[in-house]
Amino acid sequence: MKEEISNLANGIYKYLSENGETDTLKLKLQIKKKNSIIFLALGWLVKDGKIYLRGEGERTYAGVNPKKEIQVVDQKSKALIQ
Length: 82
What we know:
This protein is α+β, with helices and mostly antiparallel strands. It has three helices and five strands, in the order αβααββββ. The protein has a single domain, classed as Arc Repressor Mutant, subunit A (Orthogonal Bundle).
């Protein structure tokens, strides 16, 4: 099962990279797998920071996280690095 979820997560990531933010209902209709497997794969990607999920009304959208080029490394001095 872990391999199935991993493979699906890779496929979803590739799809979102090529097509941009997508309604999760559209993903479900295209993937044609059980909801539980789809959302486990989405959760895996969210945990790894590769994608985000956002809600709008009753819909949920998934998209690839943009690269974060600048990070706060010291809260006191607000020192930033690339």
